[in-house]
Amino acid sequence: MLERLAVTLPLALLAFLISVATGLGLAAADAAVPMRAPAALLAAMPAFWAGLLLILGVAGGLKLLPASGFVPWQSNPAAALGSLLLPALAIGIPGGGQFARLLLREADAGAPGAIQRLRSAGMTAALARRRLAMTRLRSTLPALLGQVFVAVWIGSVLVETLFYLPGLGRLTLGAALQHDLPLFAVALFTLLALALLGDTLLRLSQMLLQRRLREAA
């Protein structure tokens, strides 16, 4: 089980970082020039289809990264990371679209009255909206990151199978297909427990952050 986690955990972490970076980039671009279509398009793309496109384009066409398989960490850490990069992109790019939509939804949640007050103080509508969004995100960002983490974790199950990675997700799906109920139960419990742990830690950080903000106020 530990050798499976040595594949799934780095994959999920890398995909999570790609999701956050992509989401922040799309949200920042929307703040400059409003355009919701890219985020909506990426959010609607399943990780499985994103993986197929990356295999055809990056691995098959450009031949920049391996299309499948995994090099053990102890054999070659750089090659192991390269084995995870394409699957992480397949999970992280759609996840970034979802994260951008969450960020933009928070930006749209600013009260019209507050926006009007900031505009009367000399701010442009875009700047007022951005300031209110940043104020809201200071307390809600950990919860949004928790949603992204859970989505990334779930996405790893199908993507590990697509890229033939010997991770926990592929083990779980293989046990289900082979009707190996004891192995399936252990693998599924591990997946759910780790997803719950990650989400709980982010929600605890949100509670601590909100407490700090109340004390500072």
What does this structure look like?
The chain is built from eight helices and no strands. The protein is mainly α and 217 residues long. The protein has one domain: MetI-like fold. Helix 6 (125-162) crosses helix 7 and helix 6 runs antiparallel to helix 8. The longest helix is centred in the middle third of the chain and has 38 residues, at 125-162. The mean pLDDT is 81.
Keywords summarizing the entry:
about 220 residues, mainly alpha, about 0% strand
Query: Which sequence of SSEs, written as H and E, runs from N to C?
Result: HHHHHHHH
| Shape designation | globular
Task: Provide the domain count.
Answer: 1
Structural class: mainly alpha
What is the CATH architecture assignment? Orthogonal Bundle
The CATH H-level superfamily is MetI-like
Rg over CA atoms, rounded to whole Å, is: 20 Å
What can be said about the biggest beta sheet? none
CATH fold-type name: MetI-like fold
Beta-strand residue fraction:
under 5%
* Contiguous uncertain segments of 5+ residues: none
Distance between the termini: 47 Å
Average pLDDT across residues?
A: 81
Portion of residues within helices: over 70%
Given this structure, which CATH class is correct?
Answer: Mainly Alpha
Give me the number of helical elements: 8
Instruction: Count the beta strands.
Output: 0
